Amino acid sequence: MKKIKEKEKEIINLFKSYKILNDVPVLTTKLPIEIFKELKILVKKHKKIKNHKLNFLFEHYNRGLNTYQVSVQRPFVETSFIFPYLIALGQFYLYKFNNMSFDESHRKVLLRGTLHHYDGYDLWINYTNKGDENPLHSHSGSFSGVIYIKNTKEIPTIFNNKQKHYGFPGEICIFPATLEHSVEEQIKKYERITMSFNLNVIEIINK
Predict the structure, then answer these.
(1) What is the pTM of this model?
(2) Which end of the chain is more exposed for a tag (fewer CB within 10 A), N or C?
(3) The CATH homologous superfamily of the domain defined by 2-203
């Protein structure tokens, strides 16, 4: 029990800057500077794939109409701090919205896997430019989220066709995967970079 309480305290402190949006179950918080720096390095590494003439072989496909999307390659995910951070974020979301403890003998948050092809994990980078948009959609899994790497105040994420959130660089938000959200067409010539992810909550039954 003591270990659980210590871990709970550490995780709560990690997300002390959190906020909850009005009218929608969306939790936002500021990334630790060390993790934000790590993500900018990942974005730079994957931009080499984007700029390669065979980039279509690694392209990540979903409902977004973006210039280019690429999953973070599996080796980078598994050696990064964003991997355990996202799991901790999912645990914190359960703690705030469902009053669940951090006792992993009862439940476990996982970064959703897509193991049947090269994507590996549901963690991908969106490179968007003028004319790009993300129509209203939802995700797979238990929770989904957006990490803002490079953003402009003119391009919000819109939840349920009403609640707008203008994410700033270094911010992350998490919400139920079923919550519909969208991004309107980008009007100006500007490269916007975000990352998206999906988490699963697996119930563990003690025998």
Answers:
(1) 0.90
(2) C
(3) q2cbj1_9rhob like domain (2.60.120.620)
Core vs surface per residue 119-142: b (16+ CB within 10 A) or e? bbbbbbbbbbeeebebeeeebebb
Closest CA to 14 of 38, 34, 37, 43: 34
Give the span between the Cα atoms of 162 and 115, in whole angstroms: 35
Q: Nearest 5 degrees, angle CA 89-CA 165-CA 64?
A: 80
- The one-letter amino acid code at 157 reads T
**One-character DSSP codes across the chain:** -HHHHHHHHHHHHHTTT-EE-SSS--EEEEPPHHHHHHHHHHHHHHHHHHTSTTGGGSB--SS-B-SEEEEPPHHHHHTSSHHHHHHHHHHHHHHHHH---S-TTTEEEEEPEETTSTTEESEEEEEE-TT-BEEEE--SSSEEEEEEEE--TT--EEETTTEEE-PPTTEEEEEETTS-EEEPPP-SS--EEEEEEEEEEEE----
pLDDT value of position 116: 59
CA distance 72 to 89: 19
